[in-house]
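From the pipeline queue, job 12 of 40. The input is one protein chain; the requested action is below.

Action: predict structure.
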Amino acid sequence: MTDILFYHLERTGLGAVLPGLLEKCLERNWKVTLRCGDEAAVAKLDDHLWRYSDDSFLPHGTQNPEHQPIYLTTSEKNAPDTDVLFLVEGATAPVDALSGLTRCITIFDGAKADHLTSARTSWKELKDADMTATYWKQAGNGGWEQKG
């Protein structure tokens, strides 16, 4: 069964949180599809993942998904052999597309109304399909607290 997680950003932005989560996936040898809500978000994250740290490297790309450990896209089609699907910047996935994944992680910014609406809609669709999801909210110390 797919672990479904929602991460609610309140204190830091996606650029601060995403690299650490991606690093953990690669440490587990998981292949990642990172689905963004639009092409501008793909370009922004592609650039950010190259520059976010002087002493780290996150192998990723926007083309040739079969060769990318982290594949950035707006497409509803995952890279071959995807273990983890990240949904960011308002991206969504139909409930029936989550089977076969190890994890599906939605990261949304609570200050962006469209992202919040998207996350709430996805949460409701999962609950209506009798699927289990966990909700994580940023804590005051920068960590995460499970809320649901």
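Job complete. The longest strand covers residues 3-9.
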